[in-house]
Amino acid sequence: MKRRNKKNRIMGRLRSSDGSVSIFLIIALSMVFMFVAVFIDYARVAAMKVQSERLARAAVRSVMSSYDPQLQQEYGLYAFGDSSGDFIMGKMLNESLSPGKRGDAFHLLPLELDSSGLSLERPLGKYNIFNRQISEDMKYKAPIDFTLELVNKFKPLSQSMKEASNAVDVLKKLRKLYDKREEALDDMLAKQRKAGEIAEALSKLIMNPPGSSITDTSLGGSIRTAADAAAQYNDYVIKSEEDAARPPDEEKLYTDLIQSYLDGVSFMSITISLKVEKIRKEQDKLLNDANERWEEARQLNEEMKQVIKDAENRSETEGYDQVTRDNTPGSDGSSAGDAEMIMSIRQQAEKLIHSEELLNGLKSEISAQKSRWDAVDSQVSGLLASMGGSGMKGSTISASSSVQDYLRKYGIPGNDNILDRELAMLEQFRSSDKERKATEKKAQVKLKEAAKVIDAISGSSQQSNEVQEQFRKLQRYYDESLTFNEGQGGSGEAPFKGKGLDNDPYDAGKSSMDEMDGAYGSMGNMLNGIRDELFQNEYAVHYFQHFDITRLEEIVRNPSAVDQLSEEFAVGKQEVEYILYGFHNPAGNVAAAYAEIFASRLAIRTMEGFVVNSKMGNPLLILAAAILYGIEKAIEDMILLCQKGSIQLSKYVPVEITYRDHLRMFLFIHSNNEKKMSRMLALIRLNTGVNPADRGTYASGEIVTGIRLWFLPGITKALGSVFDSGTDQVEGNRYFVTRNADFSY
């Protein structure tokens, strides 16, 4: 019995402990369940964030997949099309979040779209965006095409063109200074000669004709010279003595003759005195002017020396050396032409300088002439002092001899004339000037022939209204592009004519060499570092249409035929030329291109002309002949280019260079990149009807998604404190996530 009671007590204790264990397990399991539930919802929220991020990116990509196909296919550009971006984004999100057709499906992550937004930015019409897309499109092919198709063709000529440019630069400057210097020396001699010639009038007052003796004559003759007065002097003395010896009451026989003689001597004395005073003033002025002209010639001579010195350090030709040094693929590094020969021509410029000995000799002669005139003046003063006296004959002969000596040296042409000898010396120095000036005239005539074609193209007036309206619309688009990019819009009406040729052959030659300097300088800069400008230029010639130069064949032969090509000057047929020059008229751009090609041909052919005419001796004559050769050959080149669309680069580099290649080179010379981009954007708008300023290239999207939390809805605030990352929110039993995504073409 006792054992049974003991057993019952033990079993009672066990039953009471079973209840406490169950409660403990329930509490423990509840904590575990709560902990697991927290991590389940945490995992769902984390997955939701990842999925929302992916959805945002996919939505923006879907929007930007709707780019404008015309811009892409025709110009290689990407910009959002004319669809509704918000519609595309909303449709994609709705389809992605659709639960599907199965009603018994279990959705672990049932995302709900709360809202979405889209912003399109960075329009294609902005310079930096347009430039970036150009760079992306051209970054591989532009450097290769530029090197193989342009640089390698021009590289062999680099050193010869450098020396030709230096030669034209220095010799053109020297020619101008040379002509001014020689003109000053001629004027100096002319003033000296005039100072000598004016003494002839004095000579005629003293003794006419001059002689070494004076024969006595009787009173009563006219007194026109001092010699006439001296010739009658002895008779005057005799008759005066005779009258003086007569008694007072006897009539004087020679009173009238004596008085007439005295009046004549007085008049002649006054006349000679006034004449010598006038000549003295003129002499001083003329010889002072001659000194000034000599000083001007000396200064010009010094300027010529400085020009020759500066030519050795000319910075404008650095581009030629850069192109020569660069090891471009496909180039063997060899040079063509004859750079050393052209350099030797330039070095012959020292021949054009007058020596110090020659110039000092000319100045000394001015002083010598002044001294000789002073001697004449002194002799004439002695004559005036002796007028009416017994020494008149000797004074007259001495004064006449002095004046005649002065005239022989400075007034009367002949072997004794010092000025003639000086002029002959200068003329010997100028032995090539006559031939040079004849060559210059021929070059000017030929240059006018070339200018007629350019004037005919730029002066074309028979244009259709449709073509003119295209250019007006294009100008409006261009101005709007400048304004959109905060440039200077409202450019107004561009000049009707394109660039013409200089009227002077030397100016035309120098301008052509300057352009070649710019072309090689640009090529050298591009080789040192590929820049945006290269991409833009190559983009222009790859995607835009250039003019068909062969359409000008008839105009080159007959400039009056230009009006037959009115439709050929439409915008769509000269897009590259418009990008290059920017004239908003049908003829201007083509005329400018033609003129600039002629200039480039003139530069290359002038280089050849230096070699061809190198044996002429005088460097200025060689320059004139080289420019004449260049103009003649450039005219022939333009005819050939308009026949076949390409020409041989040079007789030393027999490679073909096309009209398009010329435009590519000119694009580097005219490097106003912002205006070029506005012109391209205006053309794109004209051709496609799409305004690049209205088309975005960058999309920024935002979506807000939410899920319902499964567990612990009573502590969502606590969960919020765990999950919230700033932009995320918890509202009731829903958790919302905001995600942004960006995409750029």
Number of helices: 26
Estimate what percentage of residues fall within beta strands. 5-15%
Overall shape: it is elongated
| SSE class | alpha+beta
Order of adjacent strands in the largest pleated sheet: 1-4-6-5
* Overall mean confidence score, pLDDT: 86
Q: Compute the separation of the termini in Å.
A: 98 Å
User: The biggest beta sheet, please?
Assistant: 4 strands, antiparallel
Number of strand segments: 6
Rg, nearest Å? 51 Å
Helix percentage range: 55-70%
Provide structural commentary.
It is a single chain. The radius of gyration is 51 Å and the shape is elongated. With 745 residues, the chain is of the alpha+beta class. The chain is built from 26 helices and six strands. The strands form two sheets. Strands 1-4-6-5 form a four-stranded antiparallel beta sheet. A two-stranded antiparallel ribbon has the order 2-3. Helix 6 packs antiparallel against helix 14 (392-410) and helix 16 (433-458) runs antiparallel to helix 22. Mean pLDDT is 86; it is low at 490-498. The chain has helices at residues 2-64, 69-75, 85-97, 127-138, 141-154, 158-197, 199-206, 226-231, 233-245, 255-310, 318-325, 339-347, 356-386, 392-410, 418-429, 433-458, 465-484, 505-528, 532-543, 553-557, 575-581, 588-612, 619-644, 659-669, 673-688, 716-723; strands at 112-123, 646-648, 656-658, 696-708, 729-731, 734-744.
